[in-house]
Amino acid sequence: MSTQTFLPPTNSSPAFISIAILDDYLSIASPFFAHIPYLTTHAYPSTLPPFSLPALIARLAPYSIISTMRERTPFPSALLSSLPNLRLLLTTGTRNASFDLSAASSLSITVAGTTGAGPSRPTPALDDVAPPPPAGFDATTQQTWALILALANNISRDSAALHSGAWQTGFNTGLAGKVLGVVGLGRLGARVAKIGTAFGMHVVAWSASLTQESADAQAQAAGLSAGTFRAVSKEELFRTADVVSLHLVLGERSRGVVGEAELRAMKRSAVLVNTARAGLVDEEALLRAMREGAIAGVGLDVWWEEPVGERSVWRTERWGEDGKSVLVGTPHMGYVEEGIMKRWYAEQAENVERWIRGEEVRNRIV
């Protein structure tokens, strides 16, 4: 990994340094960069799809700095090599699987991330922002359980019924005594699993490398006794779980890990929740299962195309009617918590200042 620091292009005056802020759906980023001298800020809150490469090149070619939100706009080699002015590419988080880092390195483009802890020095823009959550807590776990509980307690349906003049429309599903199946018992999966035990659920878990020994280690690290999380086969998890929650990292081995066979093995009363990555699930297989009512419900915070298109069947189809599975969907909100979002942008702004001064950026990836 190169350690060289790159200054702004020598053939441009500091007055012409410009930054493109991409995919800031809530329009909160610009104020964090406003105090930086000689920096012109342009925001593009609407995401262009990855296949619109000419449009992306036309939009981004003038900029020497680009601020991105993790994995919203990909930066493959074909895009990076078409941006001759780009010298600093900022992302959120400490990794971004949608960036071609080898290409960035070969093109002398510095790539830097964020930790969420905030900048190294206090900034007035964060005066009213809550501090980072205590260790062991995160927004994605909260989103996962919001979806699970929304499905179990019919929150969307009952709220809509109440506003339309109706009253009770069906039964809730008690979770105590039910089986929670966690696919991927890593940091996030273990947190979700621990909360399941608070609802009186039995926890089973699977991943390609999971052993009972490692499941016990995760349980004990969470303050629970060995055996609380039971490692099972993939087939047993999907066959026995009443709630299946996905927490794997998306890669070549895990892509499509939930397909036709897994969905058809699930109980008709079971629900599937995905707050990890859409590619873990075979979209067409899920649509078929839901249209047939093969499972009771699905909770999704991640999608195969983001933002979801206006004419997508995920928006237009009347889920939960005529025997179809219920759908509770949210627009990838598993990390969209005010404090973390604003701290990310404050960290990016600090890196812009450091880069302009010729200093080493923080949380450098390439």
Task: Report a brief summary of the structure.
The protein has 13 helices and twelve strands. It is an alpha/beta fold and 366 residues long.
Describe the structure.
The protein is an alpha/beta fold and 366 residues long. Helices cover 31% and strands 14% of the residues. The chain has helices at 30-33, 53-60, 77-80, 101-106, 139-152, 155-163, 187-198, 212-221, 234-240, 260-265, 283-291, 313-316, 338-356, and strands at 17-22, 39-44, 65-67, 88-90, 110-112, 179-183, 202-206, 229-231, 243-246, 271-274, 297-300, 326-329. The strands form two sheets. Strands 8-7-6-9-10-11-12 form a seven-stranded parallel β-sheet, sandwiched between helices. Strands 2-1-3-4-5 form a five-stranded parallel β-sheet. Helix 5 (139-152) packs across helix 7.
Helix/strand layout:
Layout: E1 17-22, H1 30-33, E2 39-44, H2 53-60, E3 65-67, H3 77-80, E4 88-90, H4 101-106, E5 110-112, H5 139-152, H6 155-163, E6 179-183, H7 187-198, E7 202-206, H8 212-221, E8 229-231, H9 234-240, E9 243-246, H10 260-265, E10 271-274, H11 283-291, E11 297-300, H12 313-316, E12 326-329, H13 338-356
Parallel strand pairs: 1-2, 1-3, 3-4, 4-5, 6-7, 6-9, 7-8, 9-10, 10-11, 11-12
